Amino acid sequence: NAGVTQTPKFQVLKTGQSMTLQCAQDMNHNSMYWYRQDPGMGLRLIYYSASEGTTDKGEVPNGYNVSRLNKREFSLRLESAAPSQTSVYFCASQLESGVTYEQYFGPGTRLTVT
Amino acid sequence: AQSVTQLDSHVSVSEGTPVLLRCNYSSSYSPSLFWYVQHPNKGLQLLLKYTSAATLVKGINGFEAEFKKSETSFHLTKPSAHMSDAAEYFCVVSEGNAGNMLTFGGGTRLMVKP
After folding, report:
1. Do A41 and B99 touch (CB under 8 A)?
2. What confidence tens digit (pLDDT) does each residue in A6-18 have?
3. In sequence order, what are the residues at sequence separation of 6 or more whose Cβ sits closer than 8 angstroms to the Cβ of residue B13?
4. Do residue B107 and residue A100 have CB atoms under 8 angstroms apart?
């Protein structure tokens, strides 16, 4: 099992450019998440998908869109990048077993917007 | 609404001495609580989780945490620090609401001196 994979690992964009961050999991999990991590602030939820075909906003959704392409894949799109979106982006998927659940994180994408 | 406060942004210990990382939470429901560790330039790894079973939770690498409802705390401890424990640690709370959104604390950077 590869777990949760993310591409690319690093990206530099100019203000106004667009890009899509890719995430895939091979653990057959229903729920998937996108977070951003900024210094001193922990992780904040951007969007999540509780199941294939559904997506919902998290704490900081402005400037982002998502697509749950199928059960495995959940992509995050920046339509017009801004310097405030410079951050490290993490994708996660969730194991749900009875009343317990656990999120597994990918290695992250480090994005710089100049 | 749920929130998490990690009381120390940095903790420095000597190798072989005890580790204490402090976390207080706020939740309207019976929460689930987690500790994650992040080594430099890596993703997040689950150390341990509390989900309303035993209040003393044992995790990987010798870490444990005690859930104290009266004090709304979930402090992380380890009897003897190892150099490899140097990392960022995140306390996380979830109320198990729609999408099981996690709320992260700001993180504590643990430094271990030889």
Report:
1. no
2. 999 999 999 999 9
3. B19, B81, B110, B111, B112, B113
4. no
